[in-house]
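TICKET #2291
ISSUE: user wants both folds in one file
ATTACHMENT 1:
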Amino acid sequence: MKEIIIGLSGHIDHGKTSLIKSLTNDFSGSLKEDIERGMTIDLGIAFLDKEITLIDVPGHEDFIKNMMSGVYSIDIGLLVIAADDGIMPQTIEHLNIFKLFNISDLVIVINKVDLVDSEILDIVRLEILDLIDKSKFENCNIMEVSTLSGQGINKLKNLLKEKSKNTTMRLDKGVFRLPIDRFFSIKGFGTVVTGTVISGSTKLGDELSIQPLNQSVKVRGLNSHNSSLKSVSIGQRAAINIQNIDINKIKRGFQIVSKNFFMPLKSIIAKINVLDNKDFMIKKNQRIRIHLGTSEVIGKIFLFDQKCINSNRESIVLINFEKPIIGCYQDKFIIRHYSPVYTIGGGEIICNSQSHNNGYIETIISIYNHNPVLLNNLCYQLGYEKEQLLELLKSYKNIIIINYLNKHWVLTNKQLITLENMIVSFITDFFNNNPYSTSINKKIISSKLDMKIDFADYLLVKLLKDGKIKKQDSGFIISKHKINLNDKEKELKDMIVKILNSELFNTSSIEDLSLKCKISDYKLIINILKICEAEKLIIRINQNIFIGSPNMSILKNKLIDFFKTKSSINVSEFKNLINSSRKYAIPILEYLDKIKFTYRNNNERRLS
């Protein structure tokens, strides 16, 4: 039998409980305090019919954690807004929680319409439309009711019944699981726990486990919709009478589950997103409140490759819990600020700490992607001493530790291969897009790939040793890279080399070469000069002086002969030696100093 859970939420005193009473003729409050205080402080349960359960969640901000104990299991959300109050802080927070839990359908109910005139009601409608604009709920039904006069109640009841027929069934993982939202003792029967079955089924006589106590219990009785049953299954509200446990050991947030399937989690890897509010962000190592199922637990959040997650952004993170929690793959949860307490985001479990053999540690390591985690940081995140972690990592065939420049990076073999290929592909693409470039330097590679410079350096050194790239000038090229010039470009290249070789040490500038070669495209001249330089056909003295390589060899031999008879040479002597002007002599001398062929001693040069 398909059962549907409808959750009513909204700001305090907006009439959720009275609405349930109007729909079902039943008061949904579960505690004596609910009646005494005139407001719901815990979950209230009522039944619209045999297939539809209504959950009344608290609207007061002090009881939001109780509210989330009910919302996690609902199929349809019903957001109540009082016409005489309009949208209030908890209205917005409850709507955000519906979004974060990915509730598929929502009905907004404007209550107390009998207390306002038509003008005020129009304003409230506009506020609501503005609130849901451009959200997944922008086309949701908006109903108007009065619980005092009964206006709109039957229409709302019919809508809820119709929507319940079209609700998609939940994914059933087969294993029985019920997060406990209430528990009590009945004289003559013993301990009873209640909640919504979110997976699998159970029957009378089954042995189950209470987690995180890891205590076995036996199913003595089952009840749903005030009827005794032999079994309950996914989607049903259920009360389970259990044996072999003291009620004082049970807490809200515990789960009753199939034996040998769930164990307490100390940490999870999750995909989280921060709500779209400019004041909201999640920082690295921030202490947060996690609401998962019916439980609330404090945790610390670790960001893998960023300092914070800004509003309306998502990221993959590691969360370490201060107390064990029960959860599994694809479980959704809410994130609240530690203090002051307010909802800032939500998430979904990707992997958990009970999955060590299934790659939990490997998953953490690989999430760092192109900036591998340092060993010390991994110790901190996993809660291991360095020696203990190193010993543990020995059992992982796919995890390696790289020691380079006094740093110790931890990564997977797949991660390393991916990163090597990433650099090779990037360099290849760079030269495809820049056909005249002769090399690309480490800083550009590191910056464009958003990779730490030290690790980029390690990878480049490794790729050099493996022969996949080679060094050229002050950068790198692919080993098989070759610049392909067309016939005109080859002709221009030969002409430039011939001109510079013939001019000895009084060479043409870029502008002069442009005129002599009859090429108006300065950029082409510069690119050809770079290619000539890379192929060691010419020497770049500065940005506008180039000398043919054979002439530089001639100059060096002349200087060696000169220094056989003299210990130093001044600028005037050097000008005579190369038969050139000061314009060329000074830059050439400075170049010779730079390559350590000579060195400057006051106003003279000596042979190095």
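ATTACHMENT 2:
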Amino acid sequence: MKADRAQAPRRPVCRRAGWLADTGAATFTSLASVALALLCIADLPVASAAPNPISVWDFGAKGDGVTDDTAAINAAIVAAQKQGPGAVVSLPAGRYRTALGAEKSIRIAGADGLTFQGEGDTTIVSGDLDAPVFRILDSQRITVRRISIDHDPLGYTQGTITGVDVAKLTCEVTIDPGYPAPNEPRFKGAQVHPFVFPEKAYYQLDRHWPNPVEMVRTGERTWKWKLQGPSHLDNWPGKRFFLYTESRSHAFILSHLRDTTLEDIRYWGGGANAGFYVNGLEGLTTFRRFVIGAPTGSDRLYACAGGGQVSGLRGKLLLDRCDFSRIDDDGLDILSNYTRILGQKDARTLVVQAKNSDYRPGDRVELWDWRHKRKRAEALITAAQGQPGGTFLITLDRDVATERVGAGVGLHFSRESMTDGIDRLINVATLGQETIIRDSQFQVFRAKCLNLKATHCTVERCTFRNSFQPAISAAPEWYFEEGSAIRHFTVRDCTFTDNNHPNIVIGASPVTGLPGAKPTVSAAPGDVSHDSAQILIEGNSFAGFGTTPSVFSWNWPVGPAITITNAAQVTVRGNKFGPLAERAPPGTPKIIVENSADVRITDNQGLTAEQTTGR
């Protein structure tokens, strides 16, 4: 087989030169010198020229804000893939409409080393709120950069509440110019989100929004709504609101990728579902300067329902200088769903549900006692085989004991699943090798900025502001069957301002109760665990925490800056605690520690012993 010339060593050529010199054949000196030069040139590695960038204009894209450019963009991507690694798809400055016809997404599949980038002011505007703008799957070394993304039509409307009649449960509203009429069919059943605390940039979540059931137009942009539900209208007049419908669109769906980079992306949401949903990531996944929010100078009150969700994280994740704001639900979820154990064939063989599951030999799994919400055992998978009916047959490297198995009742995301007591299996191998979130900003209306389950996770130099639920929740979520316990977790040099619930929540209280009933937090000795461990909270500043009432007081108290529950090996040091918010309940502590062990609280400013409560 002929050797690759670019990889061939050059030393033999030098030895040939020495041999020529030693012969004393002076008459051939000039010829030998020429030959030597040619040989050396021939043996030098030849760098292959980078493929020329492929412009989407060459495939018919217009970027005129009118033409559906989806097919042309996808054709350019296919042509670039044929060039091999290093290919670049270029979008000259323009406004590219997509998803107006049969093709709904920009698609990259089976690619290696492809870059997709905008040149100048490049915006992609999707016309479909039920399809992802980008669908990238089964690829490696993909980069998407310098792109703005929006939706038209918008998936929400907004305006001002101008008056209410509490007795009749009616209100009058004015819709902002340029926004959709609220009686469009897609808004049927949508919820009203009034900013009853506009100075805090979030609305009060009380689960009793009186949503519109009848709408009568009274003017060009004015409406009278008949409302359904208990009366909570006293503080509505003059308040701004938005009303959005459920959609399934994301800016990005990323699936089964290795070494992926999204940088300098600006996603204006437009009322869509979320910025990204990713599943099955290996290598390094980077979000750099990824912005979710409203366009500069815009009057938009709302971006999208959520920031992003990450599941099946087998590699490393980096969020660097990102900004997620005007988001309704969680800013970032790192998930690993618990799976019900349906049965046990023998001491080492389990049958489990296959919901969102990725089991591989060598994966470390944990078996959880779901009644007491604590880890019972851990093991390595030696074999995993999909079975008919959406199940997996899992073989482990050691004996394990189950206590309660079965399919359960109710939905996976429900109070029934929270309290069914059926043993769960969680794949720790899909929680990531390392996660770093740094130099980023987060603000959400009614949920958590960061909802984390990742192991070896560091959050540093970030800003969290005006968010209703905990800014950082590092704990299992029993309602959503998400786990596991948090381990090797650091929050360092961050700023927390005007966040309502505990700014940082470590660990979670086990919950009990009857299926369908309101869960009850359990403090029984048998329900105490210290599975969340090795936590460091240092150098952060907290101000204005605990501002409004909440229906979630059963889960998180309003006010404390930090709560630590069912955790161990926790250090809280060098933080600065400002005063509680004016409306915080009297006597609210700044730190609450519950059912935990080896918690060290040292060298903090603005924190007295009386402001730390242990239970």
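RESOLUTION: both attachments delivered.
EXTRA DETAIL ON ATTACHMENT 2: Residues 543 and 578 are 5 Å apart (CA to CA).
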